[in-house]
Specification:
Layout (H helix, E strand, L loop, with lengths): L3 H15 L4 E6 L12 H5 L6 E5 L2 E5 L4 E5 L5 E5 L9 E7 L4 E5 L6 E5 L23 H8 L6 H5 L10 H11 L12 H20 L39 E6 L2 E6 L5
Antiparallel strand pairs: 1-6, 2-3, 3-4, 4-8, 5-7, 6-7, 9-10
Helix pairs in contact: 1-6, 3-6, 5-6
The chain binds a DNA duplex (16 and 16 nucleotides) through helix 5.
Amino acid sequence: MPELPEVETTRRGITPHVQGRTVTEVVVRESRLRWPVPEQLAPAVIGRQVVTIGRRGKYLLLEFGTGTAIWHLGMSGSLRVLTEAAPPGKHDHIDWTLDSGVVLRFNDPRRFGALLWTEAPVLEHALLAHLGPEPLDELFDADYLWARTRRRAQAIKTLIMDARIVVGVGNIYANEALFNSGIRPARPAGKLTRAECVRLVAAIKAILAYAIERGGTTLRDFVGGDGKPGYFQQELQVYDRGGANCRSCAGLLMETRLGNRQTVYCRQCQR
DNA sequence: CAGCGCCCCTGCCCGC
DNA sequence: TGCGGGCAGGGGCGCT
């Protein structure tokens, strides 16, 4: 479910309800997520105030001053803010009750998500230490992509989805950004021209910024922290449209697999 | 190191 | 209608 825009939408949605609040209760109904929810998390956060809610890639970082909760939504996770009591449903694995009475509820059917706790500087955590730049940061520019693609035989699509190169480009937006920049997904990264690096970086930034502005992509049942669905799905150009007609040239969209993920492109519009 | 497959898990959709 | 197979938006890990 969540790509970077969904995670950022969640961060923005929960921040007004969570920032500055003190955690009064933690309920873990199912601790078997990607990694077990650490036993020390609940005693570490109860009675403490959430100072800030940050994000690095698709990791949400809830800073307490004494440590940081690292929350990842995985493929199917969501965080909701409940302003009135509601009985937990299926896959509602974790609740944090705040001193306002609001409940932060984590639901994750596939349990690929994670909730961890660290007391070291969070960016030094093993999961975060080797991540590439944020796609919307100025560090991610055409010069950077050019340098990182030289002498690389890897397909450009799997390269831009590699978090060591740049974080936050998931399968939907990788497909879309390559379409919007006119580059075939299987092109060897090292063969991209300078101009193509310029276009691709611009396309990645544009689509992520636009998706964030629109509240994230809705596929199936994504809802932001405020419970409102995103409205981006109907605007996708290629993702999940294999065999359909290109919205630009009306040609047949091709579907292949790269890195074991669905890949869709237009042979006419992408070279 | 680069690059690829596998796997964690449930839900849903499709074909039979 | 029921059931088995395949696939799904992430990403760490282990292998070559």
